[in-house]
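A favour, since you know our structure tokens better than I do. Go ahead and set the record down below.
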Amino acid sequence: MNAGLIVFLLLVVLSFLGVPIFLAIAIATMVALTSAGFPMETIVQKTFLGLNSSSLLAIPLFIFAGNAMSYGITQRLLNVADAFLGRVRGSLGAVTIVASGLFGAISGSGVATVSAIGGMTIPAMIDSGYDKNYAAACASSASLLGPLVPPSITLIVYASLTEVSVQKLFLATALPAIVLLVAFLAYALYYGKKHDLPTQPKKSGKEIASTLKESLLALLMPVIVLGSIFSGICTVTEAAAISAIYAVLVNMVVYREMNWKVLKDVLYESAISVASIMIMVGMSKASAYVVIASQLPQLFMNFVTSITSNVVVVLIIINIILLILGCMMDGTAIVVMMVPLMLSLVTAMNINLIHFGIVVALNIYIGMITPPVGITLLVGTKIAKTGVGSVFRSCLPFMMISLILLLIVTYVPSFSLLLPNLLG
């Protein structure tokens, strides 16, 4: 059997059996290496090469910055959103969406977004009389903005596999992120008016000014991170380092809501998250080497082109595959498994790799709110203490909005490539 196919099949089977993804990749790669007669030290060499990239340093730094934000900065971002949106019906849902977008501008993680923002707003919505299923659905769906708003950990991993510019990927995802945020916000306001949801007390101009003054340093954090990346002043890794240092200094020195003990806990939590992602990224180079050496991408390309040579149909096939996998697997694992496999086909069809990266990422993010493995859906459900099925039904309008955006991104490449072409 083809060694690359062995990697693919074993990875899927082991994932469904509940084996940790990094271990599933390692086992699948070693079995494939053995069957193909490759020396076993190949896995060590390729794993080292997979991790030997300065751009990957951005992943642990952004994860740490996101975790550190939870102590002081996150609450102030919520306060700012509430100051401007509190007077409208369904304001808590709208605040959740806007705050998730602001939080995502630093963390790059959907799980971190729903945990930090949803952990505060879901109980508040339920206490205010919101349907608990809608509250969980709103926070879970808004978490899509976490990884979609630049920076994105998924896109950093994608860039490491395809060697495209991380900055251009971030520019390409900015416009879709803004459109999705506005569309989610419009639905939340429509839902609030339709169901006559309560409003928050109207704040005076003086109160709004006081909130902005108190939250100024928190608001500057996403501005500094995104501004330094998009202006070219800093690389993504340097911007990640700035965000990590900034979060610690502001929380410890200014807001004084973080001490050395809390910092130690944040470092510990971040190390666990980073370890699981980085070992997966390193192992992905070894598995990608086997897949490419076995010419499986060429076989996959030949199979698809034997069915159709129409790029529209090819993109439909790619989206269907990614959406199905997104319902069942971890997002990073999908990037690791499918990008090397599809790369030859995408290149042959003259599909821009930056455009393709946004298509892959958006499919994965939609999978985050889709059972059975929709991780942010599960986190939101757990916070609201309700059932997955009920929350998923409440997620359907948000999902339809996301799918419409996916179609636009897929078939109007200029939509996502507008900013990279203008500013690149």
Summary: The longest helix spans residues 260-293. Residues 3-423 form one domain. The mean pLDDT is 86. The two ends are 44 Å apart (CA to CA).
